[in-house]
Write a structure and sequence with these properties.
Elements: H1 22-27, H2 43-56, H3 74-88, H4 96-99, H5 103-111, E1 123-127, E2 132-138, H6 149-154, E3 159-164, H7 179-193, E4 199-204, H8 207-220, E5 225-231, E6 239-240, E7 243-244, H9 256-267, H10 275-281, H11 285-295, H12 301-315, H13 321-325, E8 333-339, E9 358-365, H14 375-384, E10 390-393, E11 396-399, E12 405-410, H15 416-434, E13 442-447, H16 453-463
Parallel strand pairs: 2-3, 2-4, 4-5, 5-8, 8-9, 12-13
Antiparallel strand pairs: 1-3, 6-7, 10-11
Helix pairs in contact: 2-3, 2-5, 7-8, 11-12
Length: 475
């Protein structure tokens, strides 16, 4: 006897005696959604279905099946689009799956004549709802936005969420040669959607560098950036046999650290059990391509080479001291540092921001923070740090200044050197904690004669204002 429905519960309702509460079970109201199963109807749908079956390892698929709901990932996406392009003589872009995640929609895209990758924007809409200005987020090395999907889903529906795919992944695309050029072209796309600020910019891993450069270029043009979130901007410290590997920063196959990073782009992490085998076998690009395509025979060598090309170029992108020194941002910066990561390009320097950045230390590592296991920690800390520093008054945008004023009444008298040292120390503490501009802090020092202390300070301001005291004296 086969049940006509199966309901999965987090836990069974129990009576006070520990037995299953049958009455409560009957009260559960479960809403079922009916999915219409439509078989392929056209030759193009049939061909795409066959590609889908092969890549998704399914015996049966329907034209309304959703790639992401069926468990599709970035490597399957690369293989699937590559196979469809080959079988249909098309040139669909990788990002088309975000726009057309079903066989039916992909077939319509092909039939409509939109076969060329140039017709698909690199601004990938990962979350469509929300009335606030969008979030623009750059992915890590490799430049594909698939690993940002869960973050976009979990962050909520207040703001649209765009992932920005790197230029150079699709056919006939050549990666930009500098971060400056990458940022310049990405800004052109962003301004087509949002002509004026404030802009909310996020970047994960290598994408944090691009987000930083975009923020700088936007501010140089007079635009306002209200948030710059740098998520895991440092590289993961790389271990082999329990010891940290040296990294010369070069994208060569003699650099084991580079091979491990490259391996993680294709395998999703740097702890995969095939890593040691990879390190033993690989000594150049040809052997790496052969190794990866052997591990995943659905990947075409040309696609692997294109991704390697993007990684190899962006791996060496670094700001010089002078470049970073000249890039001082007004935007508030928050750094979400992954557990086990090395210092990032921005943490080793100073003067890149008019305000002190907020640094959030996470328990999640560089790779797990975007996965089901640890995404909640990242989302929680992002939401805690998402209060805007800007407000609109009569249609105009103003930065909301934080204005701390400190009064210190004291005896005995302080020397000028002591007064100066106290003011400097207090200013640093206040700007670090309140996250305000140094120029917003005001400090008054008022010396009081000892014989008047009780009358002018102790009685009126300590005894009579206990509710306002954060710290009480013990005298």
């Amino acid at each position: 006897m086969i049940p006509n429905k199966v309901i999965v519960l987090d836990k069974m309702p129990l009576t006070i005696n520990g037995k299953v509460d049958m009455k409560k079970l009957k009260e559960y109201h479960i809403e079922f959604t009916q999915q219409i199963c439509i078989a392929p109807r056209t030759e193009i749908e049939h061909k795409i279905c066959n590609c889908w079956k092969n890549e998704m390892k399914r015996d049966t698929v329907y034209v309304t099946d959703n790639f992401f709901e069926m468990g599709g990932n970035s490597l399957i996406a690369v293989s699937l689009i590559n196979r469809i392009n080959s079988k249909l003589s098309a040139s669909l872009s990788l990002q088309v799956l975000f726009e057309c995640p079903t066989i039916e929609k992909l077939a319509l895209k092909v039939v409509s004549g939109e076969k060329n990758a140039e017709n698909s924007s690199r601004l990938v809409k990962l979350q469509e709802k929300g009335s606030k200005n969008p979030i623009y987020c750059w992915p890590g090395l490799g430049g594909y936005c698939m690993n940002l999907r869960l973050l976009a889903e979990k962050i909520g529906t207040n703001q649209r969420f765009y992932g920005i795919q790197a230029y150079g992944i699709n056919k006939n695309e050549t990666p930009y040669l500098t971060i400056k050029e990458m940022a310049m072209e990405d800004i052109k796309m962003i301004k087509k959607i949002q002509p004026v600020g404030p802009y909310t910019l996020w970047g994960y891993s290598f994408g944090a560098r691009v987000a930083f450069e975009v923020a700088y270029q936007l501010e140089q043009s007079g635009a306002v950036v209200d948030k710059l979130f740098l998520i895991a901007p440092g590289s993961p410290k790389i271990k082999k046999n329990g010891e940290f590997l040296s990294n010369n920063g070069k994208s060569t196959f003699s650099n084991k650290a580079y091979i491990i990073i490259l391996f993680s782009v294709f395998m999703g992490n740097d702890t995969h059990n095939a890593l040691n085998e990879c390190l033993q076998i690989v000594n150049d690009e040809e052997s790496f391509v052969k190794y990866i395509t052997t591990k995943n025979n659905k990947l075409e060598p040309d696609i692997v080479k294109k991704i390697i090309n993007i990684v190899s170029q962006t791996y060496e992108f670094k700001y010089s001291f002078n470049e970073l020194k000249d890039r001082c941002l007004n935007a508030p910066i928050t750094i979400f540092k992954a557990h086990g990561d090395d210092y990032s390009f921005i943490e080793n320097n100073s003067g890149f921001s008019t305000t002190v950045p907020t640094v959030v230390e996470l328990k999640a590592d560089h790779y797990s923070m975007l996965k089901d296991t640890d995404i909640e920690e990242l989302v929680k800390t992002i939401k805690q740090n998402s209060t805007s520093d800007f407000t609109k008054i009569n249609g105009n945008l103003y930065k909301e200044n934080k204005m701390p004023h400190i009064i210190i009444k004291h005896f005995p008298l302080l020397s000028k050197e002591q007064q100066s040292e106290l003011a400097i120390s207090l200013t640093k503490v206040v700007t670090d904690i309140i996250k305000c501009d140094e120029g917003a802090v005001s400090i008054a020092l008022e010396p009081i004669e000892k014989e008047f202390w009780n009358e002018l300070v102790y009685i009126p301001e300590i005894v009579n204002r206990k509710k306002l005291l954060f710290k009480s004296p013990n005298y």
